[in-house]
Amino acid sequence: MYKVMRIVTRLCVGGPTIHVSLLNGLLDKKEYESILVSGMIEDYESDMSYVADSYNVKPVYIETMSRELNLVKDLKAFSKLIKLIKKEKPDIVHTHLSKAAMLGRVAAWLCKVPVIMHTYHGNVFQCYFSKPKTMMYILIDKFLAALSTKIIAISNKQKSELVGL
């Protein structure tokens, strides 16, 4: 049996919440033990955790992990992820959304998780931030890609865009 830890930045309205809920809820329980780890939604976002509930998925929440950048909260979330990974000893860590991708992949790598995966649910590397900020995020993402066993794009178009960075 493989233990999979899926880490998502938050369970807000959108495809990633449905995606992780389906993966955690419907993978063959004889072959996979799935753990869903989630950060918290922002005040201005709508909660979609009911999707996880509908598949009998009970997320482990990290209160300090959220979409917004906050060095103190991000370091606390990173520390909690490391502790959780060491406790659960997953065979696979699979991250979703940017904050989870950054904190989760580095934590998994430091904890020597054998398989580290990331699914892109969108592309924020074009026309989203200023050019200097975009270049910085691309460099960070290339570093994170080097820590990853597998990168998953949700479409061929997205794959082409990511490969072209």
How would you characterize the largest beta sheet? 6 strands, parallel
Strand numbers in spatial order across the main sheet? 3-2-1-4-5-6
The level 1 CATH classification is Alpha Beta
> How much β-strand is present in the residues?
15-25%
What is the overall shape? globular
CATH topology type: Rossmann fold
Number of strands: 6
CATH architecture: 3-Layer(aba) Sandwich
As a whole number of angstroms, the C-alpha radius of gyration is 15 Å
Query: Helicity level, as a percent range?
Result: 40-55%
Structural class: alpha/beta
Overall pLDDT:
92
According to CATH, the homologous superfamily is Glycogen Phosphorylase B
H-E order: EHEHEHEHEHEH
Helix run count: 6
The total domain count is: 1
Question: Which ranges are low-confidence, i.e. pLDDT below 50, for 5 or more consecutive residues?
Answer: none
Termini Cα gap: 37 Å
Write a structural description:
This protein has 165 residues and is an alpha/beta fold. It has one domain (2-163): Glycogen Phosphorylase B (Rossmann fold). The chain has 6 helices and 6 strands; from the N terminus they run βαβαβαβαβαβα. A 6-stranded parallel beta sheet has the order 3-2-1-4-5-6, sandwiched between helices. Helix 4 runs parallel beside helix 5 (131-147). The longest helix is centred in the middle third of the chain and has 18 residues, at 71-88. It is globular.
